[in-house]
Amino acid sequence: MSKVKVAFVGGEENSLCFRGMGFDVFSVNSIEALNNVLPTLRREKYSMIFSEWKFYNQIKKQFEDIRSEALPAILGIPTNPNEMGQGSKYISRLVEMAIGSNIMLQGEE
Question: What is the DSSP letter of 43?
Fold first, then answer.
């Protein structure tokens, strides 16, 4: 049985709790720094990659050619108030694409 590898990609201030939970932590603070880390994320075959939301799209692009495979699961984490709700919008869009209808509960509009 192979070992499950889990990574976190983001700023040092957000990485401490992930390091404490045993994640492999890649501290980056810019897209340029992220670009240096992306080949390692791919080569090391992580099962799950958690990232600050601002890096999510870049990481997702790195794995675009293997989207049909189950792993890695790439999860964006909002780290400031402006990013809140971005993940739920993405999940809602995926559900709508999968079943042809938006069945997710909506707040009062």
Answer: H
